[in-house]
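Question (not urgent): is this output format expected?
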Amino acid sequence: MPSRVILLPGDGIGPEITGPAVEVLDAVAPGRFEYEEHAFGGASIDAHGTALTDETLAACRAADAVLLAAVGGPKWDTTDPNQPRPEQGLLGLRKGLGLFANLRPVKPLPALYDASPLKREIIEGTDMLVVRELTGGIYFGEKTRTADSASDACVYTREEIVRIARVAFGAARSRVTSVDKANVLETSRLWREVIREVHSAEFPNIELEHLLVDNAAMKLVSAPRHFEVIVTENMFGDILSDESAMLTGSLGMLPSASLGNTFGPDAHPPGTGSTPGVFEPVHGSAPDIAGQGIANPLAMFLSAAMMLRHGFALENEAAAVESAVDRALSEGLRTPDLGGEATTAEATRAVLEHL
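Got this back:
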């Protein structure tokens, strides 16, 4: 029986890269998936007045995985706290599905070394994973707003830190870098304390270092090879993972996975009652190029590969997609964001030819 995948094309270039991703999935795993599409983000605001409807959330909960493209755009930008914003759909989806761990692998491909704003000798050999806590911190804290002041509470519990620490240490071969602001923030001091406890009690063979977030931001661009696994809280992770994405030369190249109870001591293996993961490219909706057929679909393909690996334990199929993307780039495929002229359709064909 096919596994059920919810498609959330969203806004901007989202619909343009969703169809090609389905083509790639059906090519590498024919007959394995059935798809159901729902409006999300700004498209859902236009249709239903909210970025995430109860119906869409229920469909995602009942599915085996969720493949999300992109949300947002100037059409829905507002500073009015009473108006819906597309990003509220992302927060609602993460909270509604209990997706507490965001994984962003950063591994610049040799074919794209010269596309990076950093020198080749700096990025060469970089292979890191950013593990971001996704459902706590300032994004989910209590918010207040008056005409003259505003506040956002940053709150973390011991349990939230323990479970994300286990994800990071479990993914590491030799070293984890925990990033905080413990010289200023009380939440960071708890963070550092709990990370140390989990390390000493459960993962003593993994090296642990602590970096303040400003130092980590500098080191990401001066010595990215230093990092193997970075673990950090929600807002720091949001910023640092986008910074690290630019090591590859384009936000259009990086995938991500947001996962829930497939981790930790009470984990459910994929497909055995686990919370469905959400898989999405790191880039935004790129409204400036929407509708032109030139969006880079490669991060969407790589997100589909992460879905194959983490959502369905299809390692061979995931590796096949990643290899096809790598080989297409090695043979010269370049979309406009990578300095070339290939269209979305041409990039899709180039990858399909290597499957």
